[in-house]
Amino acid sequence: MSDDVVEQLHDAIESTIADAHPGLKECSRYPRRRRKLGLPAAYVDLERAERSDDQEDFHPLWVRAEWAARAIYDPTAPEADLKARQLALSIAATVERSRFGLSIPEASVIAVEVDEFSPELDGYVVWVVRFENHFRLGDTYWEDGDPVPDTVYTSARGEEHTEEDPGLDDYEEAEEVE
Questions:
Q1: Half-sphere exposure of 56 (CA within 13 A, CB side)
Q2: Dihedral (C-alpha) 116, 117, 121, 127: value to the nearest 10 degrees?
Q3: Which of 2, 95, 133, 149 is 20 to 30 A removed from 102 (C-alpha atoms)?
Q4: How far apart are CA 134 and CA 51, in angstroms?
């Protein structure tokens, strides 16, 4: 992915949620400014990013990102509490195992819960869907077009071979070591 990976992810997540929920009046990011919201709404927020435990040796940085998608309803709307929960659960079903149309691993839902800690959304009924995904920051060490090795051969004999005679009969496929 390119240097604007966070913007690409935001755009992809927002459009995935908006496409799956055509009744939303707004689906965007970071509702920080105090203004009247078009409701019902969903807001996507990157809340945390850290080095992933799945760091691959040939990528500069593999990131585990935690996202929040907030489902927001007008408290005066009929059955607002129920509808906010239903929207949050529907968003969770949408993001679970989604790649958002990008070449990244599938997202995974962490929790769906009431959001009582967003002061900018006081006065609304808010439920939050917390989910994570992983993505790469920076370019791969492998040049474009070069194949990434998927099989490693080892030999204890130390024999040298040429391209014409690679001597693969003398080698064994290495076992995966954890």
A1: 16
A2: -50
A3: 149
A4: 9
Identify the CATH number of the domain defined by range 5-137: 3.30.2000.10
Over residues 22-60, the pLDDT tens digits come to 999 999 987 666 578 899 999 999 999 998 876 656 557
User: Which tokens sit at 54?
Assistant: 């799945």
**What's this model's pTM, rounded to 2 decimal places?**
0.75
Q: CA 70 from chain center: how many Å? A: 16
3-state SS, the chain, equals: CCCCHHHHHHHHHHHHHHHHCCCCCEEEECCCCCCCCCCCEEEEEEEEEEECCCCCCCCCEEEEEEEEEEEEECCCCCCHHHHHHHHHHHHHHHHCCCCCCCCCCCCEEEEEEECCCCHHHCCCEEEEEEEEEEEEECCCCCCCCCCCCCCCEECCCCCCCCCCCCCHHHCEECCCCC
Q: At what angle do helices 80-95 and 5-20 cross, to 10 degrees?
A: 120
What is the side-by-side order of every strand in the sheet holding 41-51? 26-29, 41-51, 61-73, 125-137, 108-114
Instruction: Domain ranges for the chain, please list them.
Output: 5-137
CA distance 13 to 17: 6
